[in-house]
Automatic annotation (TrEMBL):
This is Periplasmic chaperone PpiD. The keyword Membrane applies. The chain crosses the membrane at residues 12-33. Its main location: membrane. It comes from Dyadobacter luticola. Keywords: Cell inner membrane, Cell membrane, Chaperone, Isomerase, Membrane, Rotamase, Transmembrane, Transmembrane helix. SUPFAM superfamilies: FKBP-like (SSF54534), Triger factor/SurA peptide-binding domain-like (SSF109998).
Amino acid sequence: MALINKIREKSGIAVTVIAVSLILFMVGGDLLGPNSMFGGGNNQVVGEIGGKKIDIKDFQSRVDGFRQNYEAQTGRSLNENELSSLRDQAWNQFVVDIAYKKQFEDLGLTVTDEELYDMVQGNHVSPSILQAFSDPTSGRFDKNAVVNYLKNLKTLPIEQQKSWENFEKSLREERTRSKYENMLKLSTYIPKAQAEKEYVAQNTKANLRYLYVPYFSVVDTTIKVTDSQLEEYLSAHRKEYKGTDTRSIEYVTFPIQPAKDDSAALYSEIKELARGLATAQNDSAFASMNSDIPLPINQSLGTMTDQLKEAVKTFVPGGVYGPYREGNTYYIYKYGGTKTDSVSTAKASHILIRFENQSDSAKAAARTKAEGILAQIRAGANFEALAATSSADQGSAQRGGDVGYFQNNGAMVKPFEEAVFSATAPGLIPRLVESQFGYHIIKVTEPKSNTLYRIAAIGKTIAPSQATRDEAYRKADEFVNSVKTKEQFDAAVKKDKNLVLANANRIPESATNINAIQNGREIVRWAFKDDSKINSVSQVFETEEQYIVAVLTGKSDAKDVKVDDFRDELTTKVRNQIKAEQITAKLKGATGDLDAIAKKYGAGALVESASDISLATGFLTSAGFDPIALGKAFGLKAGQKTGVFTGENGVFIMELVSKSEAPKIADYTQYKTQLTQSLEGRMSYLVNEAIREDAKIEDHRAKFF
């Protein structure tokens, strides 16, 4: 009885404890979590715009609205990238509602119902309406379709009615913003003096000689830069180095690569598919249904892989060929013969020689250079080598001038396209081809062909089995359990020759990818957690292709800029300052002409010439565009030299050989228009940046998503 009475006495306490436990279980995360009220944070605020805090519930509600509209239009659920894009749209909508609308209201800008009617079904229909209600076949806008839709709007599901309401709201906002930006554009003014200055900069021409000692001529390792020098430089140039919240990490990956057994299993599967493809009545449908990769049924040589281009030469109609392996994918092909395409495909290489401007002298200089290169090639010089060293098209120059396959459908500029598709055999086109980009020296590597190959193709990608994934995770888990500090992390990486250490510096809080790692959001969120300290080691992170273990190596704070945040950039700046001082001291007091001074200086000093250049487009051969050097040169009189001075990329002495002043003109309208259009073209960007800066926006979305 004593025991029972004791239980009765304590039962009230027990019930209370259980009740409190249940409450904490249900709301404990809100009350006691790291961002909770009692935990010292506030996880309800997703950001602040113009002094107004944005609650996470309000933000999520707007995202959900966008998601519903999107899924109603597409008929499918969003993927993670699309959802991230909708979050950006929702955030930007808050920026418009708060920051922009303040500007609109201050100016009294509105869009009336009459204006909205005109945009939807009047005489000035919005491009958004034109796109939504155009005939898909003819592309013509059908105003009756708009009218009929609006007449029947009340009979449509409530979701569609709400969608149209939001659409009209967006039309009003778009027109209001357009009014605002147009008003600011109309406020731009270029005075005559500025237009005259632009005219002179473009049309005053000079011939120069100069001595140039580049910074890179002094070996970096000979210059010692101290932290105190970096601190001093940062202090003097603090406005140039705006702080941001970033993190830096080092990491190792444990790839989830298909094992030998995975490859063998897929090889057996694809051989079975080859038998099915051979006997299928509808081979294109069979291929489409069984392929991991969507592949076109008709292919030109330009769309084929290199391996298929070679193989198709041996194919016989009706035959099944393969499997061919490319990377982690096996392919089998059923060949159905050829047919004639409506367009042709060709492959070519080129060397582009640009002219700096459209003046006759600039074109003549470029043509002379291009003709000289063409003559070298015709005499037996290597086309690819000359393309690599001489072509202004840097993208193709790295490939020996190769621009790949293209079709005669406007993919290339007209003169280039006509020259290539006029050729009937591979080889060098024996003349220069002029386009708006400059002079082209062209070699046709594969002449035009309008043959289409009918190929039913199945591509099957090797996927790692669960056993393979488990083995990769075991290695990652074993690694992370053996390291607790940065020192242990480094030692373990050094010990295991299969591990490759990688680093990612200055990762922003909103980043979703880390270097080549897709969907690295969880790693970023770990790095930005308050309890993630410098040199702390992460847990194992998983992506589709690999497991990752990281160590936090650096932090930067937007409100507290430190040398380490910009160490590499600051070191380069300070090192170049020291180099400039050394070079200047060595050149100081030198006499004679530029050649004599360069000879006295020794290795590293270059003497070069620049002909017929202007302040607006001046480009120095080795130094590139250096406004300091150009400005000093154009301020000289013919025959004069400057003293030694520091430019953008090195130390100079400039000499003006001759200068042709821009002739006086009465009308500067053309140059006034150029400057006005340039400013108006940047207006939208400049307005957006100014409004956002004025609103003092704080974006904390990365703490939630």
